[in-house]
Design brief:
Layout lengths: L1 H10 L1 H32 L10 E8 L14 H17 L3 E8 L11 E6 L2 E14 L4 H4 L21 E5 H7 L9 E6 L1 E11 L13 E6 L9 E7 L5 H15 L5 E8 H11 L2 H32 L2 H9 L4 H32 L19 H32 L3 H7 L1
Parallel strand pairs: 4-8, 5-7
Antiparallel strand pairs: 1-9, 1-10, 2-9, 3-4, 3-6, 5-8, 6-7
Helix pairs in contact: 1-10, 2-8, 2-10, 2-11, 8-11, 9-12, 10-11
Length: about 425
Amino acid sequence: MLRMILTQLRNRWRNNISILLELCLVFCFLWYITDYFFVLNFNYHLPSHQSLEDTWQIKLGTLPDTHSEYQEAAADSMEKEANFLRIIDRLKQMPEVEAIAFFRDMSTPGGESYYGRGILSPQDTTLWINGMWHASDIRGDYFKVFHYTDPEGKEVSLQDFQINEHSVILDETLAKILFPNGQAVGKEIVCYMDGRVTYQVVGVVGNTKRFDYLRPTTKFYSFERANGSNCTDYEIAIRLKNGVKEAEVIGAFKNRLTSELRIGNYYLLSFDSYKHIHQQTDKSFGISNEIRSNMLLFLFFLLNIILCVIGTFWYRISRRKGEIGLQMAMGATRANIRWMFYWEGICLMSVAGIIAMFIEIQLVALDMTGTLGAYDGGNYLPDNKPLRFLITNFITWCILAVSIVIAIYIPANQASHMNPSDALRDE
């Protein structure tokens, strides 16, 4: 049957030019959309070696000096630090709290802020990269709160590293970029903050993502101690034990915090889950709306493809009643008729796909399909352009093949139920 169909398509090439051009245009456009969602889906399923589940943000406020409960003595730098540490101790003693950390509020996990710094390797000063800086107090355990894992997936905590104020921990990608030989621990890096600061690498943890649909952000973790002059710039993160329901956290637990954290001039300013903060960040950057809009456009375009193909093949089939009647008079079954039209549509689409791929190659050469969230040193599947090109074209072919079969089903089924004598008489 396939040889007969190819012969018919060759003999009808003048009639097939218009539909061939139409399918070629459709294939190119659908491939472009498929490529976008392929990269997006790939990024989404990249692992993030941290967990925001059951983690909550606590922000403290300080009473203004005009407030009736303001304490002049508590405004002293040493007293501010002492009261801050009392709050930390109270949180640690709460039975619901599994782990606690406190860090600069510019380093909020899942938050909008990005504290970037330039980093280089003294061994090779050409290896320069910008990374997200995270500074936490060594008296907390940031890695335990957010269930960090190493690149192999094993959970880590601050106790696993020899930490001091001149130590730094790199994420996996940053370690590979700065130290291509694979040995980062024990080496030094230079960070440009308020001047040139040298750190010693004491460990490597897994990559984390700032946004779900983008690649992991290069990140490094340094350590310091909060004091009376900067403790108001810190936020507190806690991980609650399993079994604590969210309703209880928002209700009774929050009320307890309001009273327990009222020490000196400090009071509970805000209490929110990091999961909610992450969702709000996606919205504020337009990530969620962009994905939703593009998905709706994709579905709308796919529906129009099906309607367009239905109309085109309905017209083609209606002009071939005599041929259908002759085949059925010669013994062709209804299934044979349906499958003939299915294979015709798929063959036409395959030819159009081959032509479309030559056009797509030009788009790739012009770099019109850049990888989302790409950065130097990335070594992901979408960065392999030939392989990505073949995969996305195969996916496009499958989507279009299914669409064509669905579109042809109605006119092909109608044609297969045609009476042979009526078809021949019409001819």
